[in-house]
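Incident log, structure service

09:12 report received: a user says their structure output differs between two submissions of the same chain.
09:20 pulled the input from the user's history:
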Amino acid sequence: MIARKIFTGARIFDGERFHDEKALIVTNGRVEAIVSCNGLPEGETISLAGGVLSAGFVDAQVNGGGGRMLNDEPSAASMYIIADGHRRFGTSALLPTLITDTADATAAAIEAAKDAVKTNRGVAGLHLEGPHLAPARKGAHLAELMRPVEDKDVKAFIRAREAIGTLLVTMAAEQVTVAQVRELSEAGIIISIGHSDCSSEAAEERFDAGVRGVTHLFNAMSQMGHRAPGLVGAAIDHPSTWCGIIADGHHVDPKVLRTALRAKRGQGKLFFVTDAMSLVGSEKDSFMLNGRTVRREKGGFCSKLVLSDGTLAGSDVDMASTIRYGVTYLDLTLAEALRMATLYPARFLRLDGYGHLSPGARADLVHLTDAIEVTATWIDGEAA
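09:34 re-ran on a clean worker, output below:
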């Protein structure tokens, strides 16, 4: 039986460009076409009062939401709570992210993701941010749990990728060899360098061996100097390397982000991540992270999250807010800001059918007002 929905009344952004005075036709949870509003087929009509209809947002780095951190309880139930917490802000697909933790917690997160990706509740894979990070760039992670990649880890990651589908692992260049990178990449694992104090040469060797991206560019990594480009310089200069950025007004100065947007080799290789913690979608003002209190400090574009010593501990930003930030402070057009939250992260994660509204794509949708506020989100054409 054909179930058809027809969305009218809003500008449609298909991931590449806008369509004015058109209708989006969705059939059985998939995009059928974008057509003229004249002579529409039969189906349930959803009339939108202006604004923009876009593919739902894709977030590759979400530590928590809805009052829950994945590290608190690495289970499928936690992943659903996190996804639900972000859906009201337009995110229809995300990777729950486990920050550096014990081997048992990592194993539990992998098992949970195997189940969560089989449902249609917004969990598109798993991101493991640690434990293979560099203590010198630990950020809010626990340095005592960090260690190099071993052969048993390589085998475990490959098994996990085969079961989950989309597995993103953030590693420091210092903690993984070029040979290990090549083996993991050839097995379909998406490797990102992050929390690393490496040289540009070490980073470039791993980029060429199969590392696909860099985790939260500028944060927790070796910076760019005029004779020592560091990880930042290597990431901006390497044409095939993707870079996630946190656009919340706290993690990176807007002048620096504007510079990176102008300088990055490789068109469309910068994309938004939230790096969100549990307070997004929650009314709480603090939470516990590995036994330490993280508190919300109000002020600026959005609140920031800090440990007692002032260290930033993830973000308090949602994806719709990053788009507003991009348009307001980063000189981005609305179209490019939307791509950085939809098309580009989907391409980075190799999520076919996500991040665009081409025929056959998933009907994961978000409706935004002209002020870039979310009014509704759909997953597979169903209100979510």
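09:41 both user submissions now match this output. Likely a transient worker issue. Closing.
09:42 reviewer note: The mean pLDDT is 97. The chain has ten helices and 24 strands.
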